[in-house]
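HUMAN: I'm a chemist; might I ask for a sequence paired with its structure tokens?

ASSISTANT:
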Amino acid sequence: MISVLAPPGLDVWAAVVLIAASFFTSALTVSAGIGGGVALLGLMGYIVPVAAIIPVHGVVQLGSNVGRAAMLRDHVAWACLAAFFIGAVPGAWAGSSVVGALSDSALKAALGGFILVITWMRLPRLAAIRLPGFAVTGAITTFLTMIFGATGPFNAVVLSKTFPDRLRFQASTAAVMSLQHLVKTAAFALAGFAFGPWLPLIAAMILTGLAGTWVGSHILRKTPESRFRLVFRILLTLLALDLIRRGVAGMAHG
């Protein structure tokens, strides 16, 4: 029965690992603020065929983030979401035109450096980011996510400066990421990626991801604000350093 979840080219054990990982990474994202999507992407890089990593990851993250946004829907900043969408559409179109044409090593290193700076330095302008800023963010991060998949930390840093209330931050981040992954999935489908063989595995990963979201949301509400923010910044720093490491290593071997 489990074998039907493994698409051609993927072992059954790998499918089981991915299904379990979807639960834990979703719980990590909603309880600690960030990191689940990048962690899942990193794991997929070891066991999923290269051509399928980013599109499959995008659909799974779409399901996970939709569930998280639905659970926190009363706290979503809808006007910001609309502005983000205005930028995301052209960003996806531009990104799809250069997928595979650029090395992602330099982009990873640059993104990691940006996250470090924006996390630890005081940037008052971001605290007052307006709707045009969300449109620009939507265009840039959607363009980048088409190329190497994980721009959740970028979006989360911007939104964390805009929404100091953690529930509004979590809800708006989930809504933004849902929209971004939806646009990305549509772009990959239009570009010809065959999602069909991957649908059973994707469905199973979305279900376990929703379960992880539910567990993580309960942890979030019980976590003291100061501890939440500290864990959030530490996780962002670790993710940024790993992005830099991977980017530099990729350029060195390139």
Remarks:
- The radius of gyration is 17 Å.
- Residues 2-253 form one domain.
